[in-house]
Write a structure and sequence with these properties.
By secondary structure, this protein is mainly beta. The strands form six sheets. A four-stranded antiparallel β-sheet has the order 3-2-1-24, with no helix packed on it. Strands 4-5-6-7 form a four-stranded antiparallel β-sheet, with no helix packed on it. Strands 8-9-10-11 form a four-stranded antiparallel β-sheet, with no helix packed on it. Helix content is 5%, strand content 42%. The protein is built from two helices and 24 strands.
């Protein structure tokens, strides 16, 4: 459910390429129920932008439905309620949101109906005040640094993607990885000294890697031959990721940055992907979807110990790539 591109299809958390997954979804979207219930709205646009003053930090995510086949960004309170639409772009898609550390802005990817990525943009937390990030045409997977000064992202180089870091204004872009594989979905360590990301090879395998920014030294976090995707690094030091394990389904796993302590926290006959940590590291939000693209995909919450699983969004929609406000 990630962005398809004119370069190399981007990989989703369940091991499929976005070009395949989104193309299938577009062809089969007539089978998706488009009715969306009208509920009370406990989270206003203002609240979405000002939640730093409260314990209820909103979650931003991308959504599409059969009735609205291009993605827009939405915000929802982790306590539930109706989502608030932040972007209104009927001819382009807005996906892959990432909160700034102060909660004032959101970075995201915008791409057109033909699948070509326009690049990374930022906007105010409640929507509006859009600013393009220069030099990011074709880029995906933005991740805002803990100090708020930089954005890491994946960008095409030939037929594969590499990890870059640039200033928020697009200045001083630096390429960090140089491989024949696809390097995707960077996430920052709490101290801003490392990035974790997933490295996907041509065979369809993907592993979580870690790179030190000062030396560009790379260390494997998960083993070769795995199918591990979309890592997210918590302030408490654990990395959550989505793994397609022996069940054939994607589940949420946790691991220490040194590769020890790996354990699974979700398990069902659905695909669980794109985990994002709560600010205090006690819970995660993730997307759970059926085995077929015609099935809705909704956001769920779970405690870091795997308990208290809660369905957060409940409409007949595809709710993807959630990011929990710091």
């Amino acid at each position: 459910m990630d962005t398809s591109t004119t370069h190399r299809p981007h990989h989703t958390g369940d091991g499929r390429t976005a070009g395949t997954a989104r193309g299938t979804a577009r062809r089969r979207r007539a089978a998706v129920t488009a009715a969306v219930a009208a509920l009370a709205v406990p989270l206003t646009l203002g609240a979405a932008g000002q939640a730093g003053a409260a314990a209820d930090h909103p979650i931003v995510y991308a959504r599409y439905t059969a009735a609205a086949p291009t993605e827009d960004l939405y915000a929802i309170s982790p306590s539930g309620g109706t989502s608030v639409k932040l972007t209104h772009t009927p001819t382009v898609s807005d996906v892959m949101p990432s909160w700034s550390p102060d909660g004032k802005r959101v970075a995201f990817v915008r791409y057109g109906s033909g699948g070509a990525i326009d690049g990374i943009w930022t906007m105010a937390a409640a929507g509006g005040d859009l600013k393009a990030v220069p030099g990011t045409k074709g880029a995906s997977d933005p991740a805002w640094s803990p100090d708020g000064k930089r954005i890491a992202y994946a960008k095409p180089v030939g037929t594969q993607r590499e990890i870059y870091v640039a200033g928020v204004a697009g200045t001083s872009a630096t390429r960090l990885t140089h491989t024949a594989a696809d390097d995707l979905h960077p996430t920052w360590s709490p101290d801003g000294k490392h990035l974790a990301f997933n490295r996907a090879d041509a065979s369809g395998h993907s592993r979580v890697m870690r790179i030190r920014l000062s030396t560009l030294t790379e260390t494997a976090v998960t083993p070769a031959g795995a199918r591990d995707w979309t890592p997210d690094w918590s302030r408490g030091g654990l990395i959550a990721f989505s793994r397609v394990d022996s069940s054939g389904y994607a589940r949420i796993y946790l691991i220490r940055p040194d590769g020890t302590g790996v354990h699974r926290i979700t398990g069902s006959r659905f695909n669980d992907k794109n985990p994002s940590w709560s600010p205090d590291g006690s819970r995660l939000v993730f997307t759970r979807g059926g085995a077929d693209d015609a099935d809705p995909e909704n956001l769920y919450l779970v405690k870091a110990d795997g308990t208290a699983l809660t369905k957060l969004t409940k409409t007949a929609s595809h709710d993807l790539e959630a990011d929990w406000r710091p």
